[in-house]
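Backbones bend. Shown next:

***
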Amino acid sequence: MPCDSRKVSASKEAFDCTACGACCRCFPIFAGEADAQREPRIREEARLLEAHMRSEERSYRLFPLPFLDCCPFLRENLLCRIYESRPRVCRRFEVGSDQCLEARRRIGIVDAI
């Protein structure tokens, strides 16, 4: 279901993405080979998927992984350690989108919009 662009625009102003990290803590995060080429640390921190499960955008799983409660690149201050070279899926995630609102709801962040 496409999100309402008015809701996203209003939400972008209302949400502070640098103080949240919800998307990094509740949704599966996958990275492709192009992401790993751009950011080599992905290969070190992520789990390589079995060959039959890989696709162009899904070669490595960053979250969930055993013993981690968030993406391995999310710092304690809720900022991304690899923001400039983050995976494509993270670049496409829109602040204030329906997915963003769901992530925030899942971890207990409630915003008035």
